[in-house]
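Troubleshooting entry. The earlier prediction with adenosine-5'-triphosphate gave an output that would not parse, so I re-checked the input for stray whitespace and re-submitted. Clean input:
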Amino acid sequence: MTTALKLTDLSKTFPVGKRLFGPAKGMVRAVQPLSLSVEEGETLGIVGESGCGKSTLARMLVGLLPPSTGTIEINGAPLDAADPALFGRKIQYVFQDPISSLNPRKTIRQIMEAPLKHLHGMSAAERDARIREIFAAVNLREEFLDRYPHEFSGGQAQRIGIARALAADARILILDEPVSALDVSVQAQVLNLLADLKQKFGLTYLFISHDLAVVEAVSDRVAVLYFGAVVEVGPAEQIFAQPKHPYTKLLADSAPVVGRALVAPEGRETELPDPLNPPPGCAFSARCPYASAECRQAPPPLEQQSDGVWAACYHPLSETA
Ligand SMILES: Nc1ncnc2c1ncn2[C@@H]1O[C@H](COP(=O)(O)OP(=O)(O)OP(=O)(O)O)[C@@H](O)[C@H]1O
């Protein structure tokens, strides 16, 4: 197997409360140094509740946010964080809210043409052929190309968002909550389309979502994020059926149906630790029924628990827990 995407010690820290000429009040570590690999053709799901660092991670991966530390490698070659245009050729982003992510003043054809012009230097005829090919692949009618984003339903707009990401010929897609804004009936259509496109174009997906059931259904492997760190990673079928980390178990127990949010529904306090004053030990220790003194002293390292399953826990769950 070839590694498509390799992240090594990738982290992001934001200064907060910074005044124009003064020092910052503190630093928020949105993503702790994180290392993950995604194999070619694989779908790696990333789950975690609101505030765990999913969006920050996604934005770093597509060059929208420079990492504070660490490296991003694509097929063994490091991406230069100082050259965001390079990212677009290798990794593309599919946004959660399809309609507002499309420029309302441009036709779909203009939206689709932009990445082709910048990335490939194609002739007008070549661009037209490429746009038609991609549009057919996402099952949209050619006449839609001359319409504007507001004329589309959420599901159609998300197909356009996916088509735009594919136009640049990138082989890695970061799908950031790609179906969360859609009706449940439309979600399945978009998920099926993503599965077809993956086969057809040989794509690799990083599928970010707070919706555990969706992630479980589409992913080969899943990484569970908590407070900016990977607490467990492993094959999708094992991660939720036999979780090793008590946080993964909490997620698995609280999200049995498609479309249902994780532990903290919209608007409710997440019970995550204060990012300006993080605990010295395991970030989950205050919520964990198994926490011991050791857990409150130093964060547990990510260690292999069983074949392919890694968890950061001093008291990993046994299969009977
Ligand atoms: N620009 C920023 N400045 C300061 N703190 C930030 C910034 N962006 C994110 N954060 C903080 O970093 C942490 C992770 O945020 P992030 O948006 O990545 O989480 P998330 O899992 O994507 O959440 P959601 O699902 O609600 O978008 C949070 O504590 C957030 O408040």
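This one parsed fine. The radius of gyration is 20 Å.
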